[in-house]
Specification:
- The protein is about 30% helix and about 10% strand.
- The strands form five sheets. The protein has a four-stranded parallel sheet with strand order 1-4-5-10. A two-stranded antiparallel ribbon has the order 2-3.
- About 50% of the residues are buried.
- It folds into two domains: about 375 residues, Rossmann fold, CATH 3.40.50; about 60 residues, no CATH class.
- With about 475 residues, the protein is of the alpha/beta class.
């Protein structure tokens, strides 16, 4: 028998000879594992979804640790493997790669085109994670939606992941899962970090209705399945920290001083006026493209070379181009509300909760975390946790993410699933294991952060501002 069958059998035999001491629902039977989630669950990395990284999504890491092989692109429906909707390299969109270290790190999309490789796979995939998905999307998307201009990422991705075979919940249930792993909710608040608009955050009351409906639908369809979910992190990704609020000299990477004071970018303050942003304001990386055209630079620079060459000097940034401290506070408050909802919903249904928030906190702490001789932190490029889009994780980051789910399963079900070892990534994650000298050379600051305009557009194309259609289709209204 396959390894995951043997693990399930051992767990069931142990249940016959010992009084259960754990309250987790169902059983730790991994004979048919199903994963639901968003871009993190799909293995989206460096602005791309592709087969080089999809097998390192947190769900795929969990699958391997309980005995599965990841299905190759040539697999058929009867093969006993963990099916993932593989996309050929360089992926959707093209993977961002480190192309040069001189004069500074240059990150640009890999050339070429890509396509789904398993579109005709004759059963639902084990991994039903959809980049861009919200909680409500897992209840509503089917992959049969009519294409529209500017549609949300989740809708376009769902076409080749769901293929019109039903919602993720329906397809999960159709597989008669023995165990379900779920991590969802990030996109219900994260879009504010790319739109600068707090109104895009899902209200806590709606989140509660949708999250509980999601759990109840899965339980009703698979009443004997074991389950695990995860909470949500509240840290600030490098995507929001690479562009400082002041004008920086690209050669010295130090703030430019006028009259002894730094030059803060200007933002539209309403009624035809503009004001300098504050030191605590965050500027998403996507705003870099507008700053490079002169937006946000004060009018006093209009006649000073080289700023005089930029066409939009003196025109302020839009409020949607920046995120104020108050807006970030609103996001953190909502995340705390979401996590309370997740914890309470899971506890009421005897579902263990993976401490994903704790992992992100440890990685973001000074010095990060130590894994033997390697330190992993949230630092851009050199930290090893965040990929080259500065929001999604590296293969190593997803492996650590998956280990949090394994810990929760082991604690909730009294199992001994081994944690995934990082050594398997040493040959596949080398760009993120620099030596100390290289780390000092790969600093990122200001608008001269080494990312090409083309590379930035790849990131922007994935993080589209959600439309009213997307929000209105979710359940709970």
């Amino acid at each position: 028998m396959n390894k995951h069958i043997r693990i399930a059998a051992a767990v069931l035999i142990a249940a016959l000879v010992a009084v259960p001491m754990f309250a987790a629902r169902g059983a730790a039977d991994f004979s048919h594992l199903v994963v639901l989630g968003d871009s993190y669950g799909a293995g989206f990395e460096s602005g791309s979804l592709n087969e080089r990284h999809q097998p390192w999504s947190w769900g795929a890491v969990l699958a391997r640790q309980v005995g599965y092989d990841i299905c190759p692109a040539t697999a058929v429906a009867t093969d006993d493997c963990f099916a993932v909707p593989l996309v050929s390299y360089p992926g959707l969109g093209n993977e961002l790669t480190l192309t040069s270290l001189i004069p500074g790190p240059v990150i640009a999309p890999a050339p070429g085109s890509a396509a789904p490789r398993m579109i005709n796979f004759a059963r639902p995939y084990n991994n039903l994670s959809i980049p861009g998905a919200t909680v409500g999307a897992l209840l509503t998307l089917t992959g049969a939606e009519t294409p529209t201009a500017g549609e949300p990422t989740a809708v376009s991705m769902a076409r080749f992941i769901l293929r019109g075979l039903g919602t993720p919940v329906q397809q999960a249930i159709a597989q008669r899962p023995s165990f379900i792993a779920l991590w969802i909710g990030g996109n219900d608040y994260l879009n504010v970090m790319f739109s600068g608009t707090p109104a895009t955050i899902t209200p806590a009351a709606d989140f509660k209705v949708r999250y509980e409906a999601l759990l109840d639908a899965l339980i009703a369809g698979a009443p004997n399945a074991g389950m695990v979910v995860g909470n949500l992190p509240s840290g600030i990704p490098p995507y929001l920290t690479l562009v400082p609020p002041v004008l920086v000299d690209p050669t010295t990477r130090q703030p430019i001083l006028i009259g002894g004071q730094p030059v803060f970018y200007m933002v539209d303050s309403g009624n035809g006026t503009q004001a300098p942003i504050t030191a605590t304001t965050l500027i998403p990386l996507q705003t870099r493209d507008k700053i490079a055209q002169g937006y946000g630079l004060p009018a006093l620079l209009r006649n000073i070379p080289p700023f005089s060459l930029l066409p939009h000097v003196g025109e302020p940034l839009s409020p949607n181009d920046v995120i104020t401290a108050d807006e970030i506070s609103q996001v953190f408050t909502r995340i705390a509300e979401y996590n309370t909802i997740i914890n309470q919903a899971a506890a009421a249904r005897n579902i263990p909760v993976a401490d994903v928030a704790g992992l992100f906190s440890r990685v973001s702490a000074p010095g990060g975390i130590s894994l033997g001789p390697i330190s992993v932190s949230s630092a851009p490029v050199t930290g090893g946790f965040y990929s080259f889009d500065f929001f999604h994780l590296t293969d190593l980051g997803y492996l650590l993410f998956g280990n949090e789910f394994i810990k929760a399963i082991n604690e909730g079900y009294d199992t001994e699933i081994p944690l995934a070892s990082i050594t398997q990534l040493f040959a596949n994650n080398g760009a993120f294991f620099p030596d100390a000298n290289a780390a000092a050379q790969l600093s990122f600051i200001g608008t001269n952060n080494g990312i090409t305009t083309e590379g930035l557009k790849q990131i922007q194309s994935f993080w589209q501002k959600p439309t009213i259609l997307r929000r209105s289709r979710a359940v709970g209204h």
